[in-house]
Amino acid sequence: MASSRDQRDNSKEEHNPLRPKIIRPTPDSGPSATVALAQGQYTGVLLPASPLNPLLPRAVEAWRGIPYAQTTGGRNRFRPPVPLDPGPDKDCLNLNVYRPASYSPARDGALPVVVYVHGGAFNAGLGTERDMASFVGWSEAPILGVNFNYRVGALGFPSSGAAEAEGALNLGLRDQRFLFEWVRDNIGEFGGDRGRVTLMGVSAGAHSIGYHLQSYTTTDSPPFHRAIMESGGATARATLSPNHPRTEAQFREFLIACGIQPDQIAADRIFPLLRSLPLGTILAASTSVFARYQDPIRWPFQPVIERTGGQRGDGEVVIIRDLPISTFRRGDHVRIPVLAGFNTNEGTVFTSPAVETNDDFLRKFTAMIPDLTAADLQRLAALYPDPVADPSSPYARVPPGYGRQWARYEAAYSHYAYVCPVLQTGHFYSGGNGNSDNSDDHSDEDEDEDDDPPPVWIYHFAALARPDLGGKANHCDEAAVVAHDMAAIGPHPGLVRISDAMHGAWARFVATGDPNPAHIDELGAAGRGTPGLPATVVRLTDGEVERCRFWWERVDLSEGMGRRLLDGSGDAVRARL
C-alpha cells in the first residue's frame, strides 16, 4: 500500500488549497477539430500551452456541452434517461471530451479513455469539479478524458415506495450507465478506444462505480475495463430499501417542502404533480431536506435497493439488486483491475465539532446505526479511547474551539464511512470472499475463479493540507493533486511533488492498467521515501486491523436493513479479512 505521507506541504496559509471547485475554463485560442456523430456535429476549442499559460504543459482540445440524453425536464422529469433524437437539443444531460491537441491517429492509434464520475453526496456536484483538461494535458502517454453531469438530489434519487412504483429509483445511477454506454458507442469518433475505458470517481462518484461494478455482472461486455475509486465504494454508504422508514420519512419531508400534503393525494398522483412544479421549487425543497440530516450524517436522496428496473429507456435494468455486501459475498461483481484508496482524515469535513462527552460520541453512532448493541458500543468505546478519561488517548489533541471528543469522533467516522470500506472492497475485488471463518466448503469452481484475480492497488493519501485543523488529509483533498491542477497546487511545492507521482500513477493506470512506472526501485520503510517518489509502502498495524475488523463485522448493520445477516447456523457472518 502506497502512502503519500513523506512529502508535506508546509504552507502556513489558513485555507485548504485542495477543496473541490468548479473549474475556471482555460482560455481558448479558437476552434479546433469538428467531430461528426449520429446526433450532430460538434466543433472543439483549443486550450493552448504557452509560457503565458503555465497550467497546461501540452495543448488540449476540448469538446464541451455535448448532450448524451434528452432533456430531463417536463415529461421526462423523474424518469430514466431517454436516448437523443438526431439533431441539436440544448436542455439535456451533457458531457465534455478532452484530447491532446497533438493527437495523430496514424501515430497514436485509438487512445485509452478515462471517464470521471463526480462526487457530492449524491446531492450536489458537477462533472467540471475535476480539471480533466489538466489531467489529460499532464499525462506522459496520450489519453482521452471525459467528464459529465448526472441528476442528483431529489431529481436524481427520489427514494421511496412511491418512486419505486413510478419506476423512478436511482435515476442518477441510470444517467451514469447511459453515459457509459454513450461513450462505448461514440468515443471512437474522438479517437478513443472503446475497449480501454477506465472509470474514475471520488466519494459519491466512487460509490457509484462500486454499484456499477456489481450491476454489470450479467453483461458479457461492460462498457468499462478498469476502475479508480477514491474514498468510496459500494459498501461505504447505507443502501436502504426504497420503503425503509428513513427514506419514506425523508421523501415525505420533501413533498411537504414542495407544498404537497402526502396524506391528501393519491400515491399515483404524486409524480405527475411533482412534474408540474417549477424546477426551483424542487431544488429548494431538496436542499432544505438535505440540510436537516448533516449531523450526524443520514443523508436523504441516496441510491437504494431495487426490485424492478426503471419504467422506460434503460431496458428494465436493475442496478442495485441487494445489499452490496451480500452481492460481494456471492461474488456477483465485475472482475477488472482496480486502483482504490483513502485519505487519513476522511471525516474532518463531516463531523460536528460539538462532541464533548463519551455519551455524545456514542450517540452519534447510534443515530447512524440504530441496531448497534450495548456490547457493540462498549467495544467501540474501547477501540477509540476516550481522551477525557484516558490522557494517553491518541485523540486528545483537538483544534481550538472544538469539543474534547472531536478527534476521536473524526477518526471513528473516517474508519466507519471510508477507510475500512475501501479496504474491505479491495479484498473482494482482489478475489476474496465473505464466507464465515468456520466454513471450508469451497467448490473447485470457486477456487478456479479466484486463481488469477485481477490486480488491485490501494493507496493512502496523507499529505497534510489543513493547517487550520491541525494538519489534516481531509476527504477529497487528493482531487487537485490527482488532476495535477496547478491553479490549486502550484503555490505549494510539496503538493506539486506529490502530484507528479500521484497523477503519474493514475495516468499510467488509465493508459496501461498498471499505476507503477516501468522501472521502480524498491521503496524503503515508512519515513524513508525514495528520492523522486514521495510515497512509501506501509502495512496496516494490528490496531488498524482491529478497528477495521469491528466495522467489517458490522457492515450489514451499517448498510441499512437494520438487522444482521445470518449464515446457515444462525450466527452473524464474520468478516474474513
Automatic annotation (TrEMBL):
Broadest EC class assigned to this enzyme: hydrolase
UniProt keyword terms in alphabetical order: Hydrolase
Acidic residues bias: start-end ranges: 442-453
The protein's name in its UniProt record: Carboxylic ester hydrolase
Hydrolase recorded as keyword: yes
Biased composition range(s): Basic and acidic residues: 1-17
Its EC number(s): 3.1.1.-
Carboxylesterase type B domain location: 90-517
Spans through the membrane: none
Family membership noted in the UniProt record: Belongs to the type-B carboxylesterase/lipase family.
The species this protein was found in: Cytospora leucostoma
PROSITE patterns reported for this sequence: CARBOXYLESTERASE_B_1
Chain spans, region Disordered: 1-32, 431-453
GO molecular function: hydrolase activity
